[in-house]
Specification:
single chain, alpha+beta, five-stranded mixed beta sheet, 4 helices, elongated
Length: 229
């Protein structure tokens, strides 16, 4: 009997060690991140942390996993480990949520402390505005119009081609936005980020588009717009 118990425990640990947990830490304190990470690693999970925004459909502590996961009992082990650490997971979904796909050995873990709701979501109407480049050497403005058209205008360099300057834009799934040129030869993808910055006068609510790839048309540039609060 002891031999069988040893075999069962060994199999369980081997299964858990192959499961990677993508921990979304956007709303967690450093102490919470460290405690959750330590707890899961001690339970033989591999933990990868990130600060990405939550998908549109996630409004409570959630586990997202692929329908191709090898063994759903690993999810129960994960839920149990989190419960022992004081985290109740009310939502466990087998699906694709937004642009977040998880392979058979990976799960997404979105933790929201009690009383905290995602506050960084914006609507399409909120995004219609004029944005200026930042964090780069290229001076370029990006205007998103309410009719879902966009226009890029440069002030710091001569434009060698112009077929990317106008087109359409849409929010693919929060927090991702896509720009497509009129001739459909250019695609630009950004992650939307909201922050509060403070200058000498007051706080400023910033919406910033951070590029998901390096684009030769505006290398290294993100685009930002701010409103005083």
């Amino acid at each position: 009997m002891k031999i069988w118990k040893l075999v069962i425990v060994t199999v369980m640990l081997a299964g858990c060690s192959a499961t990677e947990v993508h921990l979304y830490t956007r709303y967690l304190s450093e102490a919470e991140i460290e405690k959750v990470t330590t707890t899961l690693e001690q339970a033989n999970y591999k933990v990868t942390t990130n600060t990405h925004a939550f998908p549109d459909t996630v409004n409570q502590s959630t586990i997202l996993y692929s329908p191709f996961i090898k063994d759903e009992t690993h999810l129960q082990g994960l839920i149990g480990s989190l419960s022992d650490n004081g985290w109740v997971i009310p939502n466990v979904e087998m699906l694709k949520s937004g642009n977040h796909w998880y392979s058979k050995d990976n799960v997404g873990l979105f933790l929201l402390p009690d009383g905290v709701k995602p506050k960084d979501k914006v609507t399409t109407r909120d995004l219609a505005s004029k944005y200026q480049s930042r964090n780069c050497d290229t001076l370029v403005a990006l205007e998103l119009n309410e009719d879902n058209t966009y226009e890029l205008s440069y002030t710091s360099k001569a434009v060698t081609h112009s077929d990317h300057l106008k087109g359409s834009w849409k929010m693919r799934s929060y927090p991702y936005i896509e720009l497509t040129s009129l001739n459909r030869q250019w695609w630009f993808y950004f992650e939307i980020e909201q922050t509060i910055e403070t200058d000498k006068i007051s706080e400023v609510s910033i919406i910033e588009f951070k590029p998901l790839n390096q684009y030769t048309s505006f290398p290294g540039c993100s685009f930002a717009s701010g409103v005083r609060v």
